[in-house]
Amino acid sequence: MGGDGGPAVTTSAAYAVRDHATVSLFGDRRAIQQAAVAAGIPSPDAGWASVVHSDLAVSADDGLRRILRQGAASSLGLALQQLRNDQVDAVISAGDTAAVMSLSRHLLGTLNGVARPAIAREFLGKQGPFWMADLGANVSCTADQLHAFGRQLVVAARMLSGIDAPRCALLNIGVEQGKGPELLRRTAQLLDADAETDFIGYVEPSELFENRADVVICEGFVGNIALKSIEGTASMARHMVRREIAQSSLLQRMVLGMLRPVVEGIRHGLDTDRYNGAQLLGLPGVVVKSHGSATSRAFEFALRRAIECVDQALPERLAAAAR
Amino acid sequence: MGGDGGPAVTTSAAYAVRDHATVSLFGDRRAIQQAAVAAGIPSPDAGWASVVHSDLAVSADDGLRRILRQGAASSLGLALQQLRNDQVDAVISAGDTAAVMSLSRHLLGTLNGVARPAIAREFLGKQGPFWMADLGANVSCTADQLHAFGRQLVVAARMLSGIDAPRCALLNIGVEQGKGPELLRRTAQLLDADAETDFIGYVEPSELFENRADVVICEGFVGNIALKSIEGTASMARHMVRREIAQSSLLQRMVLGMLRPVVEGIRHGLDTDRYNGAQLLGLPGVVVKSHGSATSRAFEFALRRAIECVDQALPERLAAAAR
Is B240 on the interface with A (CB under 8 A)? Predict the structure, then answer.
């Protein structure tokens, strides 16, 4: 039910992955059926998915207290409870980040040894993928918590991106040792002393896409600022490409038509859809948060990401790393 | 002498604006002359610029204490002293931000009523320009200082971008009132109470390029994270466009040749050169900081920006706003 698109987005995306997963749809049964009709796909009643009805949806406006009190009966809450009871293997939501985060933590608890869950995501850099966390689950973290995020990120990068020995860095405004707030210096000491983590020091946001590091740890407020700055700039870049094409002459546009693969390549490269789907690290189950403004195609990537996490037994491996 | 390119970049850029300003070059005389020869432009001795010799250049590695003690004799220091003595109207440097900032403050002092200078810059959004500060001059600010940055940004946006009644916002990770650190909530109260500032609330970095606000205030650490995230993502976008074109077939590239205006438009749009040149607000003179990796063309934009600041009497107007 979550996200800007609601069931219209999530239902058709779920239909697209029906051969790769057993699909359960949590939400308003009627809205789901209408979404299927509108998308021109069979009704879930035809057997491709089961529906767990709930007409209660949590939203960002509800406030944390109300979400925790009433959220268990919501579509998200019912899904998380099935995850807790091993009835499903993963929960994917396009709902509000704070709601997904707090309700997950409330209904699932955290992994042993993990004080605070973190939001992690894979990005595509110039040389390949890299990972970042925390992207906004926590607005104040301790050095110990940031250290724990790093250990979990290393597992995620190894399992989900196939990076053998992930190089780990801390996000800061400079690479010199004395730079940035005291919290980062304390975290750097912990990471330096951790023989299992290949800590390479600080990395600046301008160097992220140069793949200086495979795994980048950030305090949640700062990580959220970086994430949203990246999203805003990528959107601006897509806007500029579109505008130039729209402003070109008819003849130029005809020629551009011949170049469809090149233009599509540029669009595709600037496209964040393919990397939609943030992992909530530190929970005893797979919870993937899709971008709220995700298209059906983007939500499908979040579903595939969740399937991959289950295939790789990510929560079990994260539990081992947290100890 | 500063920046990755040194005199090779700055000398030829200065030559390009010689008809719009009286140019003084501060630095190693021999290096400047060699740079002129290499660029195929006349020597400054031919009369298009005066040279103030110094073979001492400050760098980020020097440490703040050494910069303040020895910096007055450096090329940057000599330039700033001429600015203080009204011998020049503006100083433009591609040197290290911390060095430019600290030496400017040390040699020029700050405007009456301004406790801390801020780094401000104009960005191009989807609907037009917008301004941000502080982008990294300060790693911890008070609410009063952030409020003062806002008042100065409003002047800069009005004078340099022609925005009549700039809407002012605070950079945060959400738009809801309770979001983010306490510092932002205190600053929001001050801005709300300021009848001269059209404060519209919080803005998220993902919305910056949507021009929700004309002027965006941020704490220096956070602003620097946002700035560098924007720069890194813009670089990634340019990389993708280049890669798609390089990977296209010979035929496709020939066709692309016919589309030069469109392709150049895309490149140009993703280009940060045109918006090179950050203002140091709060000083009693025009100091413009170019990006360290600026090309000659980009440095020229920083020079033109400085000329514009002088034409608009920006320091005098900022002084009036600070009171």
Answer: yes
